[in-house]
Design goal:
CATH architecture: 3-Layer(aba) Sandwich
CATH class: Alpha Beta
Number of domains: 1
Strand order of the largest sheet: 2-1-3-4-5
Distance between the termini: 23 Å
Low-confidence stretches: none
Structural class: alpha/beta
Oligomer: single chain
Helix content: 40-55%
Shape: globular
Number of helices: 5
Mean pLDDT: 93
Order of helices and strands: EHEHEHEHEH
Number of strands: 5
Radius of gyration: 14 Å
CATH superfamily: Response regulator
Length: 139
């Protein structure tokens, strides 16, 4: 009998290590009591995002729209076109006026910089629930 607890994997993309750390600290090991524990895959380049997604096992992607040279919104849009059963995406945007770009990117959620830990955790928890519902419906 296995005692391993289920986990979900969150990809965090930003060229800024501090931004990746803020996301990790906001979400923590479990963003809500009804959700599994979280494991992280941190990446700093567009190529690393695509490699991680191609490898599979990513349940939620958090993409920094302010990252350079490849912004998270453009990556979100391309992954929705190119990755079969792409995970739900949270984009981190520079200002509230950029919400239309988040919609263009086909991200399921957006949070503005500076990151509010409560908002980030709530958005990730919502996307994790969506992923779990999608997995349950597919089985």
């Amino acid at each position: 009998m296995s005692t391993t607890q289920p986990t979900m994997t969150i990809l965090v993309y930003s060229d800024d290590r501090a931004t990746r750390e803020k996301v990790r600290l906001a979400v923590g090991r479990r963003p809500a009591a009804d959700l599994p524990r979280v494991e992280y895959v941190e990446v700093a380049t567009h190529a690393a995002v695509m490699k991680a997604l191609d490898a599979g096992g990513i349940d939620v992607a958090v993409l920094d729209g302010e990252a350079v040279p490849a912004g998270g919104m453009g990556i979100a849009r391309s992954l929705k076109d190119e990755v079969f059963e792409a995970p739900p995406v949270l984009v981190l945007i520079g200002r509230p006026q950029d919400a239309w770009l988040a919609t263009w990117s086909r991200a399921e959620a957006a949070v503005t910089h500076p990151l509010n830990p409560v908002e980030v955790a709530a958005a990730v928890a919502d996307l994790m629930r969506r992923r779990l519902e999608g997995m349950a419906a597919a089985s």
